[in-house]
Amino acid sequence: xxxxxxxxxxxxxxxxxxxxxxxxxxxxxxxxxxxxxxxxxxxxxxxxxxxxxxxxxxxxxxxxxxxxxxxxxxxxxxxxxxxxxxxxxxxxxxxxxxxxxxxxxxxxxxxxxxxxxxxxxxxxxxxxxxxxxxxxxxxxxxxxxxxxxxxxxxxxxxxxxxxxxxxxxxxxxxxxxxxxxxxxxxxxxxxxxxxxxxxxxxxxxxxxxxxxxxxxxxxxxxxxxxxxxxxxxxxxxxxxxxxxxxxxxxxxxxxxxxxxxxxxxxxxxxxxxxxxxxxxxxxxxxxxxxxxxxxxxxxxxxxxxxxxxxxxxxxxxxxxxxxxxxxxxxxxxxxxxxxxxxxxxxxxxxxxxxxxxxxxxxxxxxxxxxxxxxxxxxxxxxxxxxxxxxxxxxxxxxxxxxxxxxxxxxxxxxxxxxxxxxxxxxxxxxxxxxxxxxxxxxxxxxxxxxxxxxxxxxxxxxxxxxxxxxxxxxxxxxxxxxxxxxxxxxxxxxxxxxxxxxxxxxxxxxxxxxxxxxxxxxxxxxxxxxxxxxxxxxxxxxxxxxxxxxxxxxxxxxxxx
Length: 561
Hints:
Blueprint: H1 3-11, H2 19-38, H3 44-61, E1 66-71, E2 75-78, E3 81-85, H4 94-99, E4 103-109, H5 112-115, H6 117-129, H7 137-143, E5 149-153, E6 164-165, H8 178-190, H9 208-223, H10 227-240, H11 244-263, H12 267-283, H13 289-303, H14 305-317, H15 324-331, H16 339-346, H17 352-368, H18 370-376, H19 382-395, H20 401-410, H21 413-426, H22 429-437, H23 444-456, H24 463-471, H25 473-476, H26 480-494, H27 499-507, H28 518-531, H29 534-542, H30 549-560
Antiparallel strand pairs: 1-2, 1-4, 2-3, 4-5, 5-6
């Protein structure tokens, strides 16, 4: 603060209560505005910021029932003292947002924070994103009938005058009709001040190719995205400057810029920022560990559950406006802790385009973070666990066999079947051994799925277990589907060595005298057909004249192949 500013502050009248209360309120107000811009209402960060600003009003209301805040280009002031300073003249500056549209004073009344605070934030957000054709903030304030908020504004056409106070029902200055403006313009054009006819336009006429050149250059200039260049310039300065204060200031700018790019949907620039910050962290000269960690924390910030879910919520509820390669590039910067959130959203999203992006991001993260993927197989969230199991199978991750075995042993029915499918995709000796043990599982679906995998994978080491199961009584009392699955796999795996065992079932009498059940014998015939050797055909020929029609038909089909 300059000596003149100190002198001015000393000449000000003593405020009715401590300035610190109002300063703290305005800081909380500014943070809440940022949170309102960045987060949806169901986000914890949004609710926390709103609660903070509401709480900050209470100490002020203990001192007064009304609070008048004056507005300059870069400050919010109370009793002549600055309580919030934001120097930059951008739409992110709260003082400038009000000042540029003519608002010069805000008057809050007790109870404003209960109902009308979110409305004011919403209007500020609309004004911040408004185009030249949209209503300005003053118009938006005027359209809403506030009961606990008043404001004073300056007619921008009469900047030197005194502010006008907004009063409900008061007639504001008449707006000039477009026809009057056109008439006035016609009078000016027809006056003797200046006339275009006085100039010889041919002296300044451009050739057609010169006009095309200028048009192309203007289009190129306005079509160039300058944001990556700004980021690159900041990071270049960061790498060259070793002053800790300079680097801290740049890091703060990058943090804010990153959040802003996410909120505006500028995903390519956000991804560029994260990637280049990591590069600068590795090559900046004389960089401290804390400074490097600060740059690398940008990708960690994106990978945090709350921030990533907020982004995915926004993408889920609206059509994907950004090119998909932009989002792919952004998701490519995610860290391992984001895998759980990604897998959760793959199973829940209804947005087909978003699912494709998440599948690609999930596959990339899972391939580079196998340990995290294996951990998520045992997740308490069934959707996450299911997607992790599916991803482990697709990756043929042998390291996941142990976790999948645990899922098959203790998981829910759908998880156990998914585990069997994943072990089938992995197909390693360890995976097939787990499936061998599943042949005696209490769930018939698991048994059928496991034995089919062993047959399709030509796992001859499992023949003995399958044969033992064929000899047992439980299979004889089971369903036809299970009998067929076990006999088919046995026929595929046993080869000529299994002909004798199958022939005994098909053609010989049982141990206790009576023949096997016709359904069981028919399944044996089909298994002999799978073997297809001469010995198998001989055994089938004997059954072609069997008295049981089911057995005869099965033997006939097996012989025909």
